[in-house]
Write a structure and sequence with these properties.
The protein has 12 helices and 2 strands. The protein is mostly helical. It has 2 domains: 120 residues, no CATH class; 91 residues, no CATH class. A two-stranded antiparallel sheet has the order 1-2.
Length: 217
């Protein structure tokens, strides 16, 4: 399933989620005019700018599971397709755990899971150039970290990286996390510290001798 197809299925799966009548928030921290404007507009018309503050603050100073579920298809669409949007994948996907997404109805859980898988696949298939490798940055690292913070198992995603067709993506992930100063693998994304078990799993994967042989430039 392509990312666009998975996103469309996500909208369909959450179509029955009612629009909240209001969004509660901290009186000191929330922009209630903005929150009201979010509810006054059709979901798909909400822009990245419209939703940035809400998505960053939900479950912290404003919002609840019910309004998060209403906005989620649009939040995932923006985060997966608009580079540089804040909150980053790590922050947004970490909200899924706070929303207890694994307890949602199977159709909704399955739709979100399919979007996450299609998002990662889109990064695998987008192509990684030699320049990307030396730039030592791959967006897949942020999405992998976000998946871990959402409580998704990493192993299936790491196994995809072992396939010959995705050799450059594996190299990009490795060099994203290689410390030239220390001459060793060191997770560069500070968000991994929020799920130390998953971070240790990724580090152990990258330190495997067969991985080191695969990523040699």
């Amino acid at each position: 399933m392509s990312l666009s197809e998975a996103i469309e299925n996500g909208y369909a799966a959450f179509a029955s989620t009612p629009k909240p009548s209001k969004i509660d928030g901290c009186l000191c921290c929330s922009d209630f005019d903005l929150l009201c404007s979010l509810l006054a507009s059709p979901l798909r018309s909400l822009s990245a700018d419209n939703l940035s503050k809400y998505a960053s603050a939900v479950f912290l100073t404003q919002g609840s599971e019910s309004d998060f579920r209403y906005f989620l298809p649009r939040l995932l669409e923006i985060c997966a397709t608009e580079a540089g949007w804040w909150p980053s994948p790590e922050v947004l996907l970490g909200k899924l755990n706070l929303a207890h997404w694994k307890t949602w109805p199977p159709a909704q859980f399955g739709a979100v899971d399919a979007i996450l898988k299609a998002w990662f696949e889109s990064l695998l298939n987008s192509g990684v150039s030699d320049a990307d490798l030396f730039r030592a940055h791959w967006d897949g690292d942020a999405v992998l970290c976000g998946l871990a913070l959402a409580g998704a198992p990493l192993q299936p995603y790491l196994e995809r990286l072992l396939e010959p067709a995705h050799a450059n993506s594996l190299r990009a992930l490795y060099w994203t996390n290689f410390s030239g100063k220390r001459r060793q693998v060191k997770l560069s994304n500070p968000f991994w510290s929020s799920n130390r078990e998953a971070g240790a799993e990724l580090l152990a994967f990258l330190e495997r001798p067969d991985i080191e042989a695969r990523v040699a430039l």
